[in-house]
Design brief:
By secondary structure, the chain is α/β, with parallel strands linked by helices. The chain has 15 helices and 15 strands. A hairpin with a 4-residue loop joins strand 14 and strand 15. Homodimer.
C-alpha cells in the first residue's frame, strides 16, 4: 500500500484539504516528513502540543498507564481521573470537574449545564444564550450554532433556538441584548479562530458585571487559551475576571484527546445522575497523560517562560515587518500570537502559511487576514530564531509573488 496524499482523496471524507506534507516523526519543536525533511513547528497542532512532540513526561505517562488500565467506563471511577480533577480544582476557581474527549464536548456540556441550571432555578423562559460574532466553540450542532460563524453552522437544517450574537469588545451592544431571560453568555477570553483578538479590560469586566446583574452564567471557553497558552495557567487569571463555568481541552492532554468542563458545586449539582455523560470521558489513559502535561506546564518556570518567549516572537516579527511591511499589527497574548496582514495582502494570510511550509516552518492562519503562531510552550529560543529566519524567507517569497 502506498501511503501518500493521493490516498487521502481516495479514502477520506472531503471535509479537509490537508497539505501534501505527511509528518511521520516529531521531537520537541521539530517534525520530519516521509522524505526525511525537517520542519520547525510553530503550529503546535493548533495550540494542542503544549510541550512539543514526544515530551518524555508524556511518553512515560502513556507507557506506564498503557500497561495498567486503559478504559473502564464511568460505571467506576479511576485513579488518574480523580488525581487530575483534584489538581484542576486546586489550581482554579472551580470545585467540580466533568471530563470529555474534546473542546466541543466540553462546551456542549457547559451549554447543557447552563440551560439545565436556568430551568431548575428560574424556569423555561430563562433560556437565551448570548455569544459573539467570529467566536468558535466547536463543531457539534449546539456549539457550532453558538459559535458566531454562519459559514460553519448553515446548511444543516433547523438550528438550536434562542441563541443570539453580538460583536466582541462592544459592551453597549451586549448590554442591549442581555436580560433576565439570558441563561448564559459564552465567550473566549481571547478570540482564537476569529483572528486572535484580546478583550479590552472594560469589556470583559463589563460582561461579568452584566451577567451578575441579570443572574446569567458566564462561560469562558478556554479550549485554546487554557493550560499556559497566555502565560497564565488559565487566561481568566490574567484578566481578573472569574467565570462560572470554564472549558479546557487542546493543551490539557498535550496531544492526547481530552476535554474538561469545570464549575462550582452550586452550579454542578444541576447535572445530577443520568443528565449527561460520555463513554470515553475521563478514561485512565487520557487522564494519565493530561496529568503529566498539567504538572509540567503548571510551574512558575514554564509560565514565566511563555511570557519571555512571547517577547522574543514579537521582537523577531517586528524586525521582519520593518523590512517587508506586510503586517499592520502583531496581537495576542503569550504564545497565541496573530500577525494581521496589511490592506495590500488582505485575504492572503494562507499564502504566508504555504510559503512557510516550503521553507520548513509549520504555521497557521486565523481567518483570511491573520497568520497565527501557537508553538510549544517550551520551544527553545534557538528554535524560535531559526523558525523566524525561515519565516522571513517565506515573507520575502510572498512579497515577490505579489509585487
Amino acid at each position: 500500500m502506498t501511503i501518500n496524499r493521493a490516498l487521502f482523496d481516495e479514502v477520506m471524507v472531503p471535509n479537509y484539504a490537508p497539505s501534501a506534507v505527511i509528518p511521520v516523526k516529531g521531537e520537541g519543536s521539530r517534525v520530519w516528513d516521509q522524505e526525511g525533511r525537517e520542519y520547525i513547528d510553530f503550529a503546535g497542532g493548533i495550540a494542542v502540543n503544549c510541550l512539543g512532540h514526544c515530551h518524555p513526561a508524556l511518553v512515560n505517562a502513556l507507557k506506564e498507564q498503557g500497561e495498567k488500565i486503559w478504559h473502564l467506563s464511568n460505571v467506576m471511577a479511576n485513579e488518574p481521573a480523580l488525581r487530575l480533577a483534584k489538581k484542576l480544582v486546586d489550581a482554579t476557581f472551580a470545585d467540580k470537574v466533568y471530563f470529555a474527549n474534546s473542546g466541543a464536548e466540553a462546551n456542549e456540556a457547559a451549554l447543557k449545564l447552563a440551560r439545565r441550571w436556568a430551568l431548575d432555578t428560574v424556569g423555561e423562559q430563562k433560556s437565551q444564550i448570548i455569544a459573539f460574532n467570529k467566536g468558535f466553540h466547536g463543531r457539534t450542532f449546539f456549539t457550532v450554532t453558538v459559535g458566531g460563524q454562519t459559514a460553519y453552522s448553515d446548511g444543516f437544517g433547523p438550528k438550536p433556538a434562542d441563541i443570539v450574537h453580538t460583536d466582541y469588545n462592544d459592551l453597549e451592544s451586549f448590554k442591549a441584548l442581555i436580560s433576565d431571560n439570558t441563561c448564559a453568555v459564552m465567550i473566549e477570553p481571547l478570540q482564537g479562530e476569529g483572528g486572535i483578538v484580546s478583550p479590552t479590560a472594560d469589556f470583559i469586566k463589563g460582561v461579568r458585571a452584566l451577567c451578575d446583574q441579570h443572574n446569567a452564567l458566564l462561560i469562558f471557553d478556554e479550549v485554546q487559551t487554557g493550560v499556559g497558552r497566555t502565560g497564565d495557567l488559565y487566561a481568566y487569571q490574567g484578566l481578573d475576571v472569574t467565570p462560572d463555568i470554564l472549558t479546557t481541552a487542546k493543551a490539557l492532554g498535550g496531544g492526547f484527546p481530552i476535554g474538561a468542563m469545570i464549575t462550582t458545586t452550586e452550579i454542578a449539582k444541576h447535572l445530577k445522575v443520568g443528565t449527561h455523560g460520555s463513554t470515553y470521558g475521563g478514561n485512565p489513559l487520557a487522564c494519565a497523560v493530561a496529568e503529566a502535561a498539567f504538572d509540567t506546564v503548571n510551574t512558575e518556570t514554564v509560565l514565566s517562560g511563555v511570557k519571555q518567549k512571547e517577547a522574543l516572537f514579537r521582537e523577531l516579527l517586528t524586525t521582519i515587518n520593518d523590512k517587508y511591511n506586510v503586517f499592520s499589527e502583531i496581537r495576542g497574548k503569550g504564545l497565541l500570537i496573530g500577525a494581521v496582514v496589511t490592506e495590500q495582502y488582505k485575504g492572503k494570510a494562507k499564502e504566508f502559511l504555504v510559503a512557510a511550509t516550503a521553507h520548513g516552518l509549520m504555521s497557521l492562519v486565523a481567518g483570511a487576514d491573520v497568520v497565527r503562531f501557537t508553538p510549544s510552550l517550551v520551544i527553545p529560543d534557538t528554535d524560535i530564531r531559526e523558525g523566524m529566519a525561515r519565516f522571513e524567507k517565506a515573507v520575502a517569497d510572498v512579497v515577490k509573488a505579489n509585487a
